[in-house]
Amino acid sequence: MSNTSSKYDVIILGAGASGLYCAMHAAARGRKVLVLDHSGKAGRKIRVAGGGKCNFTNMDVAADNYISANPHFVKSALARHNQWDFISFVAETGIEYEEREDGQLFTLEGAGLIAGLLVSKCHRAGVETLLDRQIEEVSGEGPFMVRSGSQVFEAESLVVALGSPAWPQVGASAFGYKLAEQYGLKTIPARPSLVPFTISGRDGKFCKELSGNALPVEITCEKSTFAGDMLFTHKGISGPAVLQISNYWRRGSALTINLLPTHNISELFESHKGENVALHNFLARYFTRKMVGLLLEGQDGETPVSQLTKKRQLALAERIHSWVVKPQGTEGFAKAEVAAGGVDTSEISSKTMESKKVPGLYFVGEVLDVTGWLGGYNLQWAWSSGYAAGQFV
Fold this sequence. Notes:
FAD/NAD(P)-binding domain, flavoprotein, FAD, BaiN-like, RsdA/BaiN/AoA(So)_Rossmann, BaiN-like_dom_sf
């Protein structure tokens, strides 16, 4: 099969967040660790995370911030290596960070610092990292054999930290799922998540006309609601609130959007009914002129608020507080920050991340059916799951 063979205690496939963190902790236990990655640079997704500032965790992390077919799966790993553990790790090295809205923590000087920190910690702990290596074949179990070019590497423990197909532009693929299936593990079909929506028809035209405009909203889908900014795009809608709700959206589902969550338009009409202000001027106190024009669709803009019929008031309230839109789809894996779905967690030990069927085979990070909210939760899952496996490989 090859002309060279090298033996390790642990081989980790993938030099991303979960793979590097697992490698670092396994090596700290004295394990001989090899990390293999097809990319030319370790931690590529970390380097572009959070707009290049790396939203590396959140001040408030709980199982409720994750979506999985088994919502309890994340609890053990999150409890044993939580956000405070990772915050301490970052703080000890002198990397400066700031807290933004909703408890999100970002580096002040760029995501490269977090990626660089993991790479240097691995190097210092004696981890061997081989980049630009295509993984051509994985076979055996105890020991596992990994073929790359003319070399074969073997180890008693194999960690799959290959992520998901989200962000193919940084080398993401579905290879991790294929490996799970090769070893007889079930996978849940992956779909793009934390992703903008595409909208067509009349609502699509509304979005296109407002492209580039953002406003605070509340979005509800399938009994979940998120508040935050929404951005209109040429293709539909994006922005933090939209990305959050995309975790809960299924094809065919509708979104209900409150375009003015801080006020009740019916109450505003009532309290200003004595004013002789034209409707379009009244609404312009709360929305841009362009949006007012689109909301009114050329109707009764000049009508004084005091002369609006109850029926018209109710219709406007419905349009503003309960805009129901049915996305055509999403912008796909190319624009998705993560994937929902992945290796079925019922196949995996929540304590060790080891396959229940195949001893020595571990899965960590985004390759698993665990999807976090926007706000540092997916990286925290990478740290927690990577740490968990690193204690047992």
